[in-house]
Automatic annotation (TrEMBL):
It comes from Pantoea rwandensis. Pfam families: SBP_bac_11. It comes from the Bacteria. GO terms for biological process: molybdate ion transport. InterPro entries: ModA/WtpA. This is Molybdate ABC transporter substrate-binding protein. One of its GO terms (molecular function) is molybdate ion binding.
């Protein structure tokens, strides 16, 4: 179990998978009260579904769009939201496999069309955006029938099992999976940045510790770790 795995604690954190790599690779190691936190890692759409079902969270880390929807539903106050990081989409292949050229829109789309199977997440921002790209550029019918689709988790794991030979996800999420090679980010003309915000839920059971944790996540040490793990600081 890694230091950012779920633990029984006083604060429940529903967090996007996009920040899993930095949390496991140093962020949580420097937090004195990590034993008082319990993490549930999910795509943003799953986080929203859990909250809609009435499941309790004290802190949420999700896309800005999702946070705005939670504010509109009265679950969060705008003054309790703090910009955290920005993620960008990337591509990975099995370790040792020839890395495809994805430096232009055409080459990227050719990579998808020629792949044996592309792994993407149906519940994550990366998969939702990838489907939009494929539909707009006419390759959906080539890629989708043989794609390896997951509802949550890390698409790179499907490279390890051999189910897919190309994986698409946030760069920071691809970096979580050992044993794969990250080809690089989407070409500039297709790249879309995804901003993430951390927020305290209105029903938080321990505001003092929640605010202390958020303050810690915004310090310079943590910002350096985010940068090393495929994220841009905000």
């Amino acid at each position: 179990m890694t230091q950012a795995e779920s633990k029984v604690g006083s604060l429940t954190v529903f967090s996007t998978l996009a920040v899993r790599a930095p949390f496991d690779n140093g962020v949580m190691a420097g937090y004195e009260k990590q034993d008082e936190l319990s993490f549930e890692w999910s795509p943003t759409t799953v986080i929203e579904s859990k909250l809609a079902e009435g499941l309790h969270a004290d802190i949420v880390i999700a896309t800005d769009e999702a946070i705005d929807r939670l504010i509109c539903k009265g679950l969060i106050k705008s003054g309790d939201c703090f910009p955290l990081v920005t993620a960008y989409f990337g591509v990975a292949v099995p370790r040792g496999q020839k890395r495809p050229d994805i430096t232009s829109k055409k080459k990227f789309l050719d990579c998808l069309s020629s792949a044996r199977s592309v792994s993407y997440s149906l519940g994550g921002a990366s998969g939702i955006y990838l489907q939009k790209i494929m539909t707009e550029h006419g390759v959906m019918s080539d890629v989708e029938p043989r794609a390896t689709k997951i509802f949550q988790g890390f698409t790179g794991e499907k490279l390890l099992t051999g189910e897919a030979d190309v994986a698409v996800q946030q760069m920071s999420e691809l970096m979580v999976v050992d044993g794969i090679d990250i080809v690089g980010p989407f070409p500039d003309e297709l790249q879309q940045l995804t901003p993430f915000t951390i927020a305290v839920m209105n029903g938080c059971t321990d505001w003092i510790n929640a605010q202390a944790f958020i303050h810690y996540l915004l310090n310079d040490q943590c910002r350096g770790i985010y940068s090393k793990n495929g994220l841009q600081c905000r």
